[in-house]
Amino acid sequence: MRKEIAATEVQELRLKFPGEAEFVFKDLDFSVQRGEHVLLLGPSGCGKSTLLQVLSGIIPDLVEIPMRTSAQQLPTSWRFLFQDPDTQFCMPYVDEELAFALENLGVSESEMSARMEAVLAKVGLELPELHVPIDSLSQGMKQRLALASVLLGDPEVLLLDEPSALLDPQGRKQIWQAIAKVAEDRTLIIVEHRIEELTALGLVDRVVLFGPDGRVLGEGAPDEVFDTYRSELAEFGIWYPGVWEEYFASEEGRRLLEPARNVRSTNGPGTVELRNFRGFRQGRPVIEAPQVTVRPGDWIAVTGPNGAGKSSLLLSLIGLLPTEGIYMLQGGRMETGKLSSRARRRQLERTSREIGFVFQNPEFQFVADRVADEVAFSLREDGLGTEVVHERVQVYLKQFGLTGLEGRHPYQLSLGQKRRLSVAAAAVREQRLLLLDEPTFGQDAANTFAILQLCEELRRRGTAILMVTHEERIAEQVATQHWEVRDGRIISLRKTPRAADPLAEPFAEREQRGRPEAEAVMTK
Description:
- The protein has helices spanning 48-56, 58-61, 94-103, 109-122, 139-152, 169-182, 196-201, 222-228, 230-235, 243-249, 251-256, 310-318, 341-354, 371-381, 386-399, 415-427, 445-460, 472-478, 506-513, 516-522, and strands at 6-15, 25-33, 37-41, 67-68, 71-73, 78-81, 157-161, 187-191, 206-210, 216-220, 272-281, 284-294, 299-303, 323-329, 332-333, 355-358, 433-437, 464-468, 481-486, 489-495.
- It is an alpha/beta fold.
- Helix 6 (169-182) links the parallel strand 7 (157-161) and strand 8 (187-191).
- The longest helix has 16 residues, at 445-460.
């Protein structure tokens, strides 16, 4: 039941980004009552994250974006959990970040360690010690740390911008359970695409459904909104219970699930071959691949818990982490071991030519000030003509739902839009190997399916794809192979029902037969 006093409110909100003709919000009235738990639901890019920043006062006090209201009430005590945890941190180490929050509350130093350990346990972040560099954590681990820091502030209002987007299924469950434990006497305003855990916990009182133009289409209890606006949810590609099943039953979904055509070159070398390969961070091995081969037309889903080494595998292949062992790329041997600065530059130049790469954090790869220029950058570097570049850029902008945003700075996009831009900029070059680190996180259903369909088009033309993902549907039904990573090792290689033919990897055969040598290969 709603209470009479608003925790935060805005009336007749008008807001648009500089240089754009369309308003993000036009005369929007929106309020949240104290103690209410509200979910903002809508397609990626409809303004949900922007609204959170308006309700907290971040816009326009800290981020200067033109806006106007007839009345506004800001919360008196609030904390904001951003989509990108890297934007949250002030300090370089875990204990220093948490201590910073506690110092602002006047907590004595003697009490800090116990509070830090308790809040980390609450969000499911296990660390060997508290004094750990934040940069050494995976994105999912960083998100847990960011939530822990927010909870230490003991705010009345929690503004949560996709807090589970970077987490594996177990991590998503832990995060929402942690939030549920502290939510009873707080106001929650949540933006989230994946809502299974929220609905299962009964955490949300009210769902507000936005359309692509920032208008409120409807609101009410979760079940009421899901039933009443089911056609709108499907039309706008919003996640809702049963959306995967409906997509797989559609013409596009059935095509995506067709058995993969055998596009492999049976006589030529693999796209990637690894033998006794290891990648290192700060001198210690963080990923091991005893014996694997990636061939043209393979679509490999790489899964495992946060911090297992999935991103490290991709960073090792691109040459951003030191490596050792045998690494063959397109039939040519890559340099591994201790490299000189010149050799490392030479290595990175080669991988940038032959591999398309998407970072887990999309901002790490942006090099241009305009969305269109970001997509065009690598094509211009390849020396393609102006007309060819323009035509291909327009195709990819349309395919990734970025048309109309050509002139916006990449940093002014929502996280979902940033992710689509990073994938578009990597895929537009159409290289023979594409490495994707969580390309579908922060995406609505429509854009998730669009990314998968593009990957399938590239795969059918012979591109090999390695995709780190927490989405089980992709790993089990869409990809042609499924690699599982745990504790810094690839522990399982297996084909999926879409595979054109059985895997021929000796390691996989040994693993399936359970021979002792398979265990020996995987033992450090």
